[in-house]
From TrEMBL:
Pfam families: Amidase_3. It comes from Roseburia faecis. SMART domains: Ami_3. GO terms for cellular component: outer membrane-bounded periplasmic space. This is N-acetylmuramoyl-L-alanine amidase.
């Protein structure tokens, strides 16, 4: 009897193994859906996941009349004032939030148009609001309008609106503090310089679009940072950091260095951009010129598909330079140098 049971257990185990293998082979998006659901649920704020799909073509009713538009039907009684649209450029995800919510949006309402720009989509009922999350294939600006109970969204390439597109990255953030000296963290210095740079661009009236990987104490992944540049097809990708001696000890070493992609051999290369950045930051801050460094060992440099420069503004392991880096006046000078470098790069044809 035990032998018969053992044989049946062996047979059933074999069948289950085959089923699992076939499922993994034929339904590879199951894992992707689970990962997407977990990530988007966390980003939305822990709402209850009602429905999700990794295949937008199964949800979006294709309509040639709408071209590159999406027509999203809204629940009855929902007005323009009840809808909030958030475009998270860093993750290329659009969140469409509407009051009330429904239990199963995809079953009850239609989305029509083109799914060409959508990599994946999900729906959540988060407390008392419904949330449609659309993960896009690249960075888009949105144009939306409301008409007869529906939301219409156009996806627009930033280069169709702006003359130049830049991505600026403040290195580190949140729990990833970078170097910390005398209670001063690199993440804070990097962000302070970028915030000063943002002020300059906010006052700039030219048709320049600047995307920032962070403007507060957050920590996007390295891949999110570089993919923002890649998926925006940015003309320039500038990452702001600060240096420290390899020993971690205070030394007399000081000055500015800039890292570049050695594999970028284009005429308007990463190296040429780095040279422009180094010259201008040194000019405005009066810091010591410590030259360029090959940077393909750095992930965001190695994987960037656009001209990239990683600026190490100064050394936190030099007492005098740390004091300077921690001062608003010096942060403004560093930001001015980066701003001037970007303008010079544009003049060079970037």
């Amino acid at each position: 009897m035990d032998e018969i049971v053992l044989k049946w257990v062996t047979v059933l185990s074999g069948i289950l193994t085959v089923i699992v293998c076939v499922s993994v082979f034929f339904f590879p998006d199951i894992h992707e859906r689970a990962v997407l659901a977990a990530e988007q649920q966390k980003e939305v704020g822990g709402g209850n996941l009602i429905a999700t799909t990794a295949n937008p073509k199964a949800v979006v009713e294709q309509s040639k009349d709408l071209n590159a538009q999406l027509k999203i039907a809204l629940p009855e009684g929902i007005s323009k004032a009840d809808v909030e649209i958030e475009n998270d450029y860093v993750t290329q995800t659009i969140y469409i939030k509407f009051a009330g919510g429904v239990d199963d949006y995809f079953e009850q309402y239609a989305i029509k148009g083109s799914s060409d720009h959508i990599a994946s989509m999900a729906y959540y009922k988060d407390k008392e609001e419904g949330v449609i999350a659309l993960q896009l294939d690249q960075v888009y600006e949105l144009k939306n309008r409301f008409k007869k109970g529906s939301l219409y969204i156009d996806f627009i390439d930033p280069h169709d609106i702006y003359d130049k597109v830049i991505v600026v990255d403040a290195g580190h953030g949140s729990h990833a503090a970078g170097a910390v000296k005398l209670g001063i963290s690199e993440k804070s210095l990097n962000l302070a310089i970028v915030q000063q740079l943002k002020k300059l661009f906010d006052e700039d009236k030219r048709r320049i679009r600047v995307y920032y990987t962070r403007t507060s104490d957050t920590n996007p992944t390295l891949d999110q940072r570089v993919q923002l540049a890649n998926k925006a097809n940015a003309d320039l990708f500038i990452s702001v950091h600060n240096n420290s001696d390899a020993t971690g000890n205070f030394t007399k070493v000081k000055g500015t260095q800039v890292m570049y992609s050695e594999s970028d051999d284009a005429k308007l290369s990463s190296k040429k951009l780095a040279e422009i950045c180094l010259k201008n930051v040194v000019d405005t801050t009066g810091s010591e010129n410590r030259g360029l460094l090959k940077g393909d060992s750095i992930y965001i440099i190695r994987t960037s598909k656009v001209p990239v420069a990683l600026i190490e503004v100064g050394f936190m392991t030099n007492y005098k330079e740390l004091d300077l880096l921690n001062s608003t006046s010096y942060q403004k000078k560093a930001a001015e140098g980066i701003y001037n470098a970007i303008n010079e790069a544009f003049q060079e044809g970037y």
